[in-house]
Amino acid sequence: MLMRGSIDPMRVTPVPDAIELLKTRRSVKPREMTGPGPSPAELETILTIGARVPDHGKLAPWRFIIFEGDGRQRAGEVIAKVFARKNPGAPAADVETERKRLTDAPLVIGIVSFTKPHPKVPAFEQELSAGASAMNIVTAATALGYGACWLTGWFSFDRDVLDGLGLKPDEKLAGLVHIGTPTKPSEDRPRPFLSEIVTRF
Ligand SMILES: Cc1cc2nc3c(=O)[nH]c(=O)nc-3n(C[C@H](O)[C@H](O)[C@H](O)COP(=O)(O)O)c2cc1C
């Protein structure tokens, strides 16, 4: 029998703060972010947590691209160039908007997903693991006190943009997680009622 206050080696220690974080977390829009972004040590923590996700078959079917400093502008150039080429009549202001896709937050992490044929692990499971990585990155950044937002957009599915960002032909972008210091409290959104999404078998 366990004595009061002793540690049960079969149980994971409850972390009430983690529950509170998960119950209240919400995204912060990149345009409502400023610097500073995470320090190098914090970034390493975020990436380590991003790589600690359920991953059937230990395939690690994801990798991360860091956009910081002028890397964010260079990525924006890639996006704007492809946009201008594919939308020749687009107003200059729209091209400029594309150029600024990554420049609001001081740090943007791209989550790249790639699947390999596997006898037991379908591609869908491997892609879900990349989604779990993205979500862990959002949660870790939030737990460190930063705002975070997982975004995609047309360019995340455009092969020419992905090539320009250095993705291989068999790689997809699961999204960009923008991370920075919130400039104002973020508004929450309505959440689904459990009564509408939960059934009991
Ligand atoms: C794969 C994926 C892509 C998303 N892309 C966008 C996007 O391009 N634009 C957007 O406004 N929200 C996008 N979202 C939604 C936001 O990440 C976020 O979930 C939402 O703004 C607020 O939800 P939250 O407060 O629970 O994080 C995306 C979500 C996911 C999972």
UniProtKB/TrEMBL annotation:
Binding site for FMN: R25, R26, S27, R52, H56, W150, L151, T152
Co-factor note (free text): Binds 1 FMN per subunit.
Positions of the Nitroreductase domain: 23-180
Cross-referenced SUPFAM superfamilies: FMN-dependent nitroreductase-like
E.C. code: 1.-.-.-
Cofactor: FMN
Keywords: Flavoprotein, FMN, NAD, NADP, Oxidoreductase
Molecular function in Gene Ontology: oxidoreductase activity
Name listed for the protein in its UniProt record: Putative NAD(P)H nitroreductase
Organism: Bradyrhizobium cosmicum
